[in-house]
Amino acid sequence: MESSLSPSTPSINGVTAAGVTTSELVIQSGGTMTGLSQVYLESKAVTETKALVAELCHHFCTLGWVSGAGGSLAIKAHDDTAPKPEQLIVTTSSGLQKERMLAEDMYVLSSDGFILSTPALKPHPYKTLSCTESASIFIKVFEMCNAGAVIHSHGMEACIVTMINPFSKEFRITHMEMIKGIQGHGYRDELVVPIIENTDHIGVLMESLAEAINAYPKTTAVLVRNHGVFIWGDSWNSAKTQAECYHYLFDAAIKLHQLGLDWSTPSHGPVRNASGFCGCSGNFSRPLKAGGLSSDNMIEPSQRCVLLDIEGTTTPISFVTDVLFPYTLENVGKHLAATYDSKETQNDINLLRSQIENDLEQDIIGAVPIPPEYVGKELVIASLVANVETMIRADRKILALKQLQGHIWRTGFQNNRLTGFVFYDVAEALERWHNLGIKVYVYSSCSKETQQLLFANSSYGDLRKYLCGYFDTTVGNKKEVHSYLEILRTVGVDRPADMLLVTDVLQEAFAARAAGLEAVISIRPGNQSLLENHGFRTIESLLEI
């Protein structure tokens, strides 16, 4: 038998229900009090939902989703006479092994979180049962997504897939048949699942999950790093089906990663592992290129020079956003404190002061004043760190930030905490061009010093011997024609068509073409999609040149 709600029984939101008798339960909804008969709590809909939750717990336990008394689920008791937002919620108890859970072990909640019915006490060795800690999150998902069921899985694949790249905020996969099982998706669609950070505080986790749902309105799942996943659907059947598909896709991604393959691209082609990137420690030989490259689909090296972009061309964009930027955020305060009195750091600080003063004049969001030196370096550093964090999150391409980042990354490379990741084909292409007498230059928004550090400490060794020069935004914005004219002048190329630009950014290709250069577009995993009929040749490997 189950115990009915007593006058002291709390709601999930910490609110106490009042005015409850043995014959009548009260739900607070929208500030009004409405009667609910005990008969309704024992209705067929609620009784069958309790049995269903118990059955699903047993099944999910065999899948490894709710082992160790972890994981949970909640299902709305379907009632044709009540709108879904007002239907009762049946959810699991905490502290009870899911494979031994019975219908009588369930909690029944109102739509806004009041506990209406609790399980009876269990004999030794069971502990006193309590409502699942995830209940408040379930309530939030029901409210925001009009869901009919929510599953919280601790499946190992859902945990590990968030650990492969510890800085990624999303899980992305495409061209897998099981994507069709996810609401609103087809085989060729890119499935995007947000990843939030784990926390000991359920309230903080609920806020993060709500922010993720707002940011990704199409999603029916949110991954929690090193923890598991929340999955929902408009019915228990939909939630279960999608949960099975999500877990399949997470598992597939892990296995593809173990094989050195990129799960996020349509071709699922090879990806080279690099220390400090992706987080995989497996030792893979360089993957073979599918099908090889014939002379029919290669660009003849008629140009005297090749001008290479870095992000999205030689190196994944995610290496910068998921490795270098987080490294800066973690170490900027330590770097400034340790090198504060050096001439180099004082120059960095002066550049930042000048930039921040300009930002303040232009009302740039997030800019905060830098106090004068006499207040002490601790306050100066704190304000610098705040500004640098804002600049990084806004991905600002400004000299003051790039210069400081370069000095911080230099320390990381010197201490072997950073390794420059380049795609598997880069070293081979550079060597081949070098042997053909083709000069190769680099043009990137990161500083020239950072460019040299990346190629000097690449996952394929020191590649600087193949590079003839480096250009950064001191020569001009990469999307402006005069920048490429200046590079031509500096290199000494009289005929602009003798230089080939390889970039992933259409605006840069248009600017280079306007300056007379040839240009091709690099298609790499993680690059932005291109406009149709852009008019440029595309390549997926530098070996095509």
Largest sheet: 10 strands, mixed
Share of helical residues: 25-40%
The span between the termini is 75 Å
| DSSP helical segment count | 14
- CA gyration radius, whole angstroms: 29 Å
Structural class: alpha/beta
Q: Tell me the strand order in the biggest sheet.
A: 1-8-7-5-4-10-14-13-12-11
Low-confidence stretches: 1-35, 272-297
Walk me through the structure:
- With about 550 residues, the protein is α/β, with parallel strands linked by helices.
- The protein contains 14 helices and 20 strands.
- The chain has a ten-stranded mixed sheet with strand order 1-8-7-5-4-10-14-13-12-11, sandwiched between helices. A six-stranded parallel sheet has the order 17-16-15-18-19-20, with helices on both faces.
- A hairpin with a 3-residue loop joins strand 13 and strand 14.
- Helix 7 (about 315-340) packs antiparallel against helix 9 (about 375-395) and helix 8 (about 345-360) runs antiparallel to helix 10.
In short:
The protein is α/β, with parallel strands linked by helices and 545 residues long. Helices cover 35% and strands 16% of the residues.
